[in-house]
Design a protein that fits this description.
Elements: E1 3-5, H1 18-27, E2 31-36, H2 45-52, E3 56-60, H3 66-72, H4 78-91, E4 98-105, H5 113-123, E5 127-132, H6 138-141, H7 153-171, E6 175-178, E7 198-199, E8 204-206, H8 209-213, E9 215-219, E10 222-226, E11 232-233, H9 239-244, H10 246-271, H11 278-288
The structure holds iron/sulfur cluster.
Residues 189, 191, 193, 207-208, 210-211, 295-296, 299, 301-302 line the site of iron/sulfur cluster.
Length: 305
Amino acid sequence: MRSIDFSGGGEPLLQPALARWIAEAHAAGCETGFLSNGVLLDAEAAPRLIEAGVDWIAVSLDGATPRTYEAIRAGADFARVCENVERLARLRAAGRPRLMLNFVLMPENVHELERIVRLAARLGVDKVHFKQCDVVRGEQGRGRALFARAADRAIRALEKKLQRARRLARGLGLESEASAFVARELPVCGQDPRSSLFIRHDGAVAACISLAYGGPSVFLGRDVHMPEEHYGRLPADDLLALWEAAPCRARRERFAERVRAYEGEIQRGFLGTAPSSYEQALGAAAAAMPEAPAGCSVCHYLHGV
Ligand code: SF4
């Protein structure tokens, strides 16, 4: 195992054993990290996690002002979370752990893109990750998605706003990453189940968090059902045996075939004899891929958003 991400839909700092698990994984040569809301990343937790050898921590900060942040994250204190992040940045040595801010784009906070970049620079983090609001399900999630199937005026304006914020980040020496505003089918998701597994709190093993929990979801504004699909359960099952068993192998191979078909078509489109525009080559590459596995075809992560 090269790397363990101790995040999984809950707050990792509520797990009392977190620092010990990180230390064990670190001693075994694994890269470790987790995504947190930062509320419990206090003066006691920060040195403990640094000492455990954690390689990266991402903190969700969906607003650059107390008003915006606290309206979105009810019960959390903006000043306290900022103080926690700043302390961690100050205490770390040689840039470890790497620190990131995750900013989930919503109608309520999209006016604060440049402000969050300036705040990130002031707090001393390394990177800002602009994410789409793609997993808030049910009524709470409705109307919050800023992405779409095709670009219109509003989307182009948002893209420009985001580009400006990312330029500012570069200027301030910060890295940035952003999900797309226009969904476009990719050969494989960022989770990349060809080389990773998700383990749920109760030991259920799945390709990713979405398939570990399943349930009603929304895909590009349409109500869909994400299947709950487990390969097995720890500790009764052996993790390597599950990795090599038919269901996991089949999903990995399907994604490998998709990547081969996609890349082959892109190479033909751009480098081969076929004169092809960028858009045509991407369209041909998408059409050449075998169908995505069950659940993945209605997953935003397979569409870059
Ligand atoms: S495409 Fe979505 S559902 Fe499929 S493995 Fe990736 S994250 Fe999971």
